[in-house]
Amino acid sequence: MSIYQELQIKDKEKNPIKVGVIGAGQMGFGLISQISRIPGMVVGGVADVDIRRVERAVNYYKTQETQKIQTIFSSDFKEIIQSDQVEVIVDATGVPEVGANISLEALHARKHLVLLNVEVDITVGSYMNSLFKSAGLVYSGSAGDEPAAIVELYEFAKTMGMEVVVAGKGKNNALNPEANPDTAAEEAKSKNMSSHMLTAFQDGTKTMAEMNLLSNAIGLVPDKVGMHGVDAGLDDVAKKLNLKEDGGVLDNLGVVEYVNGLAPGVFVIVRSELEPVDEELRYLLKVDSSHGNHYTLYRPYHLASLETPITIAKAVLQQDTSIHPIGAPISETVTVAKKDIKTGEKLDGIGGYSVRGVLETHTDMKVNDHIPIGLISGNVVAKKDIKKGQFLTHEDIELDPNTTVWKLRSLQDQMFSN
Asked: What percent of the chain has pLDDT over 70?
């Protein structure tokens, strides 16, 4: 039975899935609005630190909902998570520290958790997934986010017996490593989004985090620190993302990657060593004899929070996920200075003025003593002068051990220390 058919049954039985949404910004508001059109699903509660955003979302939802229910709202996410009005929580905050606290509260309340918060997932997701799984609960990234959309293509290819040599996404924004909330302000206003969020897209942190999440879910790694980020389209991406000896840029196959182009789509590049299969791929994908033996499977869109209800339904109805860590971290998004930082200066975090994230393997992070960018939270202070472009280590900055995300990360490091 399909998820849609199961939702129709829930609707007919007047026993809808009751969703609590934490974060009523761009993504949260879109999700809340969309749920009003989905059979067998309702919004039971909404929370945001900005009560005006909560009221806007709830008021709009009430004008659209077909099942008249009580939707509670609050500026305190704990009220929503602990309420009997909700059975599954969506974290749409995008803030690691907030996400860490939401995760713990949802676990304590025995509620499934769906994340539109890649930032916390790449920082403590391996640990939290293990806790939720042990409690018989679902911990899942969201359908519609690029990592989960790529996982769909990856599993589609692997189920057919294909070898996946590259898995990746197109980048929506031109890379600007020096972007900050001031430089992003005008464009962010025109797009009705947070300047900090747009900064994280522009300076590359979001792309690194998304490919980090993908890496942790399927086991593929970046070919080099920060990936290659070549300019490519559908016709030449398989050629460019090939081994150097075959005319591409890669040192290794079996990697995660992003390209400038193909946005807002996602892709996997596959091959088969079986000659009859290779011939059929060439025929079915309508490529000529000059095409190599690597083939691109491409999805030209990802619908972000509008697809999140699919994951919500999978969690409640099938106790399944859209994307989750396969175990210990495979990759990390580590911290790089966006500007010169003086001794004693406080660092802001993702989407701010002082640092950005760059992808590398978990092994390299440990060898180099680099710091996951999700830990730049709370009162983080430079212990010495730091140069622009420098990868930060524990000798450079003092992290804040009072934050929940720091405590959870410490437990994760202990769990996967061997």
From this structure: 100
267 Rama class: left (phi>0) / alpha (psi -120 to 50) / beta: beta
Rounded Cα gap, residues 143 and 149, in angstroms? 6
Please give the model's pTM, rounded to 2 decimal places. 0.96
> Helix, strand, or coil here: 194?
coil
Instruction: Measure the CA–CA gap between 174 and 181, rounded to whole angstroms.
Output: 16
b/e 189-217 (16+ beta carbons within 10 angstroms → b): eeeebbbbbbbbbbbbbbbbbbbbbbbbb
Is the model's pLDDT at 191 over the cut of 80? yes
Give tens-digit pLDDT for 318-352. Answer: 999 999 999 999 999 999 999 999 999 999 999 99
* Sign of the alpha-carbon torsion through 123, 413, 403, 334: negative
The SS3 assignment for 103 reads helix
Dist. CA 16–CA 10, nearest whole Å: 5
Report the SS3 class of residue 50.
coil
Q: Please, what is the end-to-end C-alpha distance for the chain in angstroms? A: 41
CA dist., res. 11 & res. 70, Å (int) = 17
Q: How far apart are CA 396 and CA 238, in angstroms?
A: 40
Cβ atoms 322, 148 nearer than 8 A: yes
- Tell me the sheet residues that pair with 267: 168, 298
- CB atoms < 10 A from the CB of 75, how many? 13
| Contact between residue 220 and residue 361 where contact means Cβ atoms under 8 Å apart | no
pLDDT in tens, 26-66: 899 999 999 999 999 999 999 999 999 999 999 999 999 88
* Relative orientation angle of helices 308-318 and 3-12, to the nearest 10 degrees: 70
Lowest mean pLDDT among 68-72, 160-164, 278-282: 68-72
Instruction: Give the mean pLDDT of 360-366.
Output: 98
Whole-number CA gyration radius for the chain = 22
d(CA 330, CA 39): 38
- How does DSSP classify residue 243? B
Residue whose C-alpha is closest to residue 206's, from 311, 349, 321: 349
- DSSP assignments along 264-280, one per residue: T-EEEEEE-S-HHHHHH
